[in-house]
Amino acid sequence: MADDPGLNPGPDQGVEIRDLVRTFSGRNVLDGVDLDIAPGEFVALLGHSGSGKSTLLRAAARLDHGAPGSGSVEVPEPSAVVFQDARLLPWARVLDNVVLGLPQSREAARTRGRAALAEVGLTAKEHAWPGTVSGGEAQRAALARALVREPKLLLLDEPFGALDALTRIRMHTLLRALCARHRPAVLLVTHDVDEALVLADRALVLTDGRFSLDLQLDSLGDRDRRGNPMFAEMRQRLLIELGVPEHERDAVTT
Fold first, then answer.
1. Interior/surface letters 186-195, b for 16+ CB within 10 angstroms, e for the rest
2. Is 192 left (phi over 0), alpha (psi -120 to 50) or beta?
3. Which residues on adjacent β-strands are paired with residue 21?
4. Where are the domains of the chain?
5. What's the longest Cα–Cα distance across the chain?
6. Which region holds residue 208: left if phi is over 0, alpha if psi is between -120 and 50, else beta?
7. Separation CA 189–CA 207 (nearest Å)
């Protein structure tokens, strides 16, 4: 995508989490987790429901103040979170949702917001009400709202889980392009093994509060990952680690 003076990548910083413990109902949902994410690195986090994926993301987002546990969390600022639900304010137009809370003057914020909307292909929806846009457009608006803050850390909590298959593929392409340009550290929580393989530089599996697999995906390259001979092998490794029975693996996407 062409450079835009309104949206510039920030300086390089990464994530460092050490010995992170989070305890709920007497159980360590996170049991001494260590995690490093390099500047510009895209990490996908997989695991069964209840394995602690969202707990880890909330800790990285600093949304769990007062949660029982211990450990250190060092993350770059600013950070931004995109959830499965776009969480657009229904009484504000798309552009106003994107620039909500920006510290600049109204006109400067709107200039930045328009640049972000252009990056996600929503220039024509600037004045639209959230209730009139599609699910994919709403998620693109949520991405624009995150990008306009020039985050050094982008946290994604199953952002495409509610989208249809074709829209999800288009969102994957868009997200890869945006992350390649802005180069934030990225942590994506997903249940979709193929999504992790298509998007990430590294895939982690969280099991019983700890990482049971840390799989580098560099060998898949940057384009046409599904066509890479290594794609099927890495998919198998992730599905085995997730405990998916052999007879179900060909059908599994989430």
1. bbbbbbbbbb
2. beta
3. 31, 70
4. 15-78+151-251, 87-150
5. 58
6. left
7. 14
Q: pLDDT at position 10, please?
A: 40
Looking up tokens 């009400």 gives 129
pLDDT score for 223: 77
Q: 68: which 2 tokens?
A: 């029982």
> What is the C-alpha to C-alpha distance for residues 200 and 185, in angstroms, rounded to an integer?
11
Q: What is the pLDDT of residues 184-195, one digit of tens each?
A: 999 999 999 999
- CA-closest candidate to residue 204, choices 84, 57, 78: 57
Amino acid sitting at position 152: K
Alpha carbon distance 248, 196 (integer Å): 18
Distance between CA atoms of residues 39 and 80, nearest Å: 15
Strand order in 69-74's β-sheet? 27-37, 15-24, 69-74
Superfamily of domain 15-78+151-251: P-loop containing nucleotide triphosphate hydrolases (3.40.50.300)
By CB atoms closer than 10 A (0-12, 13-18, 19+), residue 129 is middle
Q: Which residues pair with 188 in a beta bridge?
A: 44, 156
| Structure-token pair, residue 203 | 């895939």
Q: How many CB atoms lie within 10 A of CB 167?
A: 17
What confidence tier does 4 reach under pLDDT thresholds 50, 70, 90? very low
pLDDT digits (tens, 9 = 90+) for 165-190: 999 999 999 999 999 999 999 999 99
Closest alpha carbon to 17 in 78, 80, 71, 81:
71
